[in-house]
Amino acid sequence: MKYSWQRQIILEIIQEEKQHLSAQQIYAMARERCPHISLGTVYRNLNTLAENGMIGRVGMISGAECFDWDPNSHEHLYCRKCHKIINLDLPENELNNLIKSVPGVRAEGHCLTVTGLCPECAGKDA
Q1: Do 15 and 63 share a domain, yes or no?
Q2: Which of helix, strand or coil describes residue 87?
Q3: How far is Cα 23 from Cα 46, in angstroms, rounded to an integer?
Q4: Does 35 share its domain with 10?
Q5: Average pLDDT of 20-28?
Q6: pTM here?
Q7: Among 27, 53, 88, 122, which is 20 to 30 Å from 67 by CA?
């Protein structure tokens, strides 16, 4: 992969923010650093970064695909109240063994998103 200063800016934003950001959110932050960057450039570079294993894709959450600073397989919780996406710490071996137990499937990674309430919103409802 050839070096691109736009890609570097996008990667830095994702790694600095440590949030699960949509392309639109990343675009808004990138424009603060580089006012002439286009939304198309952001999308192309997000796809390149994800395809090269430098960032992860969370999937479609609340109508938009989100990107993750951690490219390794892990699980998420989408809070239906505040719309935050947070990482879940599930026992890795148990989930991997469950996935491996599916007949005829050779899994290379996974992306699991649970919908519910984050700790803050669950505490407010209690």
Answers
A1: yes
A2: strand
A3: 8
A4: yes
A5: 95
A6: 0.79
A7: 122
